[in-house]
Amino acid sequence: MKKILFSLLFVSSSMSIMAQDDNADEKFFKKENLFTGGTLNLSFGNLITNVGISPFFGYSLNRYVDVAGSIGFNYVSQRDFLEVNDRLRQTLFGPGAFVRIFPIDFVFAQAQYEYNIMTNRYRPAPGSLRNEGVFSFDAHSLLLGGGISSGRRFPQQKSYYYFSVLWDFGNAPNSPYKDNLNRSVPIIRAGYNIALFQGGGRRRDR
Question: What are the chain's domains?
Answer without folding.
Answer: 31-78+89-114+142-205 (2.40.128)
